Amino acid sequence: MHGTEENFGLIQFHTEKPVVISIQGILNPYKEKYHSGIPQNVVLKYEGLVNKILKNSASYNLSSFQRRAVREREILLKSKYIIGRTEWDKSISKFMAPNSQYFTGQEMLRDAFYLNSWKKRKLVGEIKIATVTSNGLYKGYETIVKTCLLLKNYEIAFKWKVIGINVQNSIVQICHKWLGVSPADVGITLLGSKDDREIVETLIHSDIYCQVSHIENSPNSLCEAQILGVPIIASNVGGTNTLIRHNVNGVLVQDGEPYFMASKIKEYQQNPDKYIKMAKNGQKMAQHRHNRIMIVSDLLKTYQAIVQN
Residue 210's closest CA among 263, 131, 142? Predict the structure, then answer.
């Protein structure tokens, strides 16, 4: 079963056959970060009436999170076999599924990310930053806006392209009303949804990939940037520190800390060679982690161990 967010894991209560849960993100710790970046009263103030009428408001979504989190606890408590990818996955699943056996199983990435590579070797002109995200309050979009404000105030030339959201998304509208600036005011270009080849094209022409989420278990978007060889600055949340070793294959910053994020972007401007070297290390690690032959082999061994048990 892929994920504990929906009700599929309840099948464990209706079959004697072994069921293995693949961790995609765990709702219970995620809901603790729901309003980590934008306070609830701010969301209620700036959220549009249409979202509330259509039951797509932040309050409604949080209530849904909380209801599903109760069911998730039931699913994990029953679980005997868990597949995860990071130390965070392992720790949280062992806590919430104390009777389970844990297996590591990496994920394959999309073809385009294996077939391309970041080849920039020096900074030319303004810093080009990229982020892939989605329309979730805990995804940290406000950290991007606050970081951009700091970079502007300190006259650091940059452009920040954000894939996955557009000006119509509620999180974008709430954030910019709250902070009193438009995306264009602070150097942000919102690209909306893109396919894998379009994402690759954006990333290989960027100088840095920045992750700003308040919680992640094993972010594929970061892995995709890493296997391309893009220099990475990432929020140190959830399972990210399994993927990024600070100052070895990328830079980790505190969750929701725009000053630290801005300082590391400035550091890239001053010493790009340091970041390019780390990116090469990261690419090698990602190529090993996401080796398709190894992933298939490990998964077959996991299934064999479960069946024999």
Answer: 131
